[in-house]
């Protein structure tokens, strides 16, 4: 069964799997999830080196600390994915990022691989979680709504660079720097697919890691849209992302007031609050915000 919507992680920081220094720096920081990358951040000639370094690094960490240490494997339709999994699963990472997914069928295949490897390693079956990159292929764009009930999946995210390559685009940005239509569509389809699957939607990276003001504005916007976290490519981005995806004190107070107001007036469909009329969807959003506040404070 898919994991419940209660799973929460705000910042997901990549670290190249062939650099012990960068893995150490990422692990020592404040990211909710650290993703050791065996895919795009590692050159073809260094794949085998990274595949040996990542499990060695994981095994050197306390077992409880590994829950936040995940691994991005190479695509399932390439030559390296099964080797990646065979190397890292026994080291008990908290989860696996599946790139370039074509649809739910890829998660089903990944689940079979993980189950076999967990059994072989004496690990509890189903304990290795999965986040899926759902828009990096043209085919994947048409299957973002197929992940409801998919095994192990706790989050979905999207990518713009590989999608541009997949469709032969020379650019994925408008002249003002915003994403062009196809990539905004990808963002929306990921959000809708995650909502349909009851898993956490996670925003894609911001490549310019020096533009922290731009990152903050973007993170705040996508949280308003419904996103629950964001990928990061540099440690400097982590604190900004964590702050943006943590409800403010003012939001928390307002949500508590709305929940208490409805609780004091059971059976009503709408209720007045600070000059506005609120209905049940407002209550549901307030309850969700309180649950998110609780999860990020643990």
pLDDT < 50 runs, ≥5 residues: 1-5
Q: Give the spatial strand order of the biggest sheet.
A: 1-2-3-4-5-6-7-8
**SS class:** alpha/beta
Number of helices: 11
Distance between the termini: 24 Å
Task: Give the SSE order as H and E letters.
Answer: EHEHEHEHEHEHHEHEHHEEH
Mean pLDDT level: 92
Tally of extended strands?
10
Strand content range: 15-25%
Largest sheet: 8 strands, parallel, barrel
Helix content: 40-55%
Radius of gyration: 20 Å
The geometry reads as globular
What attributes characterize this protein structure?
single chain, 298 residues, alpha/beta, eight-stranded parallel β-barrel, two-stranded antiparallel ribbon, globular, Aldolase/citrate-lyase_domain, Citrate_lyase_beta/mcl1/mcl2, magnesium ion binding, metal-binding, lyase
Write the layout of secondary structure elements.
Blueprint: E1 11-16, H1 20-28, E2 33-37, H2 47-59, E3 69-72, H3 81-88, E4 95-98, H4 104-121, E5 129-133, H5 138-141, E6 153-157, H6 161-167, H7 181-197, E7 200-203, H8 212-225, E8 229-232, H9 238-244, H10 249-264, E9 270-273, E10 276-279, H11 280-296
Parallel strand pairs: 1-2, 1-8, 2-3, 3-4, 4-5, 5-6, 6-7, 7-8
Antiparallel strand pairs: 9-10
Helix pairs in contact: 2-3, 10-11
Description:
The protein is globular and about 65 Å long. It has an eight-stranded parallel β-barrel, surrounded by five helices. The chain contains eleven helices and ten strands. The chain is α/β, with parallel strands linked by helices and 298 residues long. 44% of the residues lie in helices and 15% in strands. The two termini are 24 Å apart. Its cofactor is Mg(2+).
């Amino acid at each position: 069964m898919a994991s419940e919507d209660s799973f929460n992680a705000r910042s997901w920081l990549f670290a190249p799997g062939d650099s012990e220094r960068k893995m150490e720096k990422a692990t020592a920081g404040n990211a909710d999830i650290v993703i050791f990358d065996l895919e795009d951040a590692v050159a073809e000639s260094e794949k085998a080196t990274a595949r040996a370094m990542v499990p060695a690094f994981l095994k050197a960490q306390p077992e409880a600390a590994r829950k936040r240490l995940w691994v991005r494997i190479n695509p399932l339709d390439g030559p390296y994915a099964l080797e990646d999994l065979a190397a890292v699963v026994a080291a008990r990472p908290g989860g696996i990022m599946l790139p370039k997914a074509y649809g739910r069928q890829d998660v089903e295949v990944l689940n079979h691989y993980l189950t076999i490897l967990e059994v072989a390693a004496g690990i509890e079956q189903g304990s290795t979680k999965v986040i899926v990159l759902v828009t990096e292929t043209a085919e994947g764009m048409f299957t973002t709504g197929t992940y409801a009930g998919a095994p192990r999946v706790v989050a979905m995210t999207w990518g713009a660079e590989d999608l541009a390559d997949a469709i032969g685009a020379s650019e994925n940005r408008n002249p003002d720097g915003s994403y062009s239509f196809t990539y905004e569509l990808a963002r929306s389809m990921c959000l809708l697919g995650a909502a349909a699957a009851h898993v956490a939607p996670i925003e894609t990276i911001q490549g310019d890691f020096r533009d922290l003001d731009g990152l903050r504005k973007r993170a705040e916007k996508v949280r308003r849209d419904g996103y629950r976290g964001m990928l990061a490519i540099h440690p400097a981005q982590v604190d900004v992302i964590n702050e943006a995806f943590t409800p403010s004190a003012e939001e928390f107070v307002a949500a508590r007031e709305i929940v208490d107001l409805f609780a004091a007036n059971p059976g009503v469909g709408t209720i007045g609050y600070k000059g506005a009329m609120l209905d049940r969807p407002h209550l549901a959003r307030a309850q969700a915000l309180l649950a998110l506040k609780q999860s990020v404070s643990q």
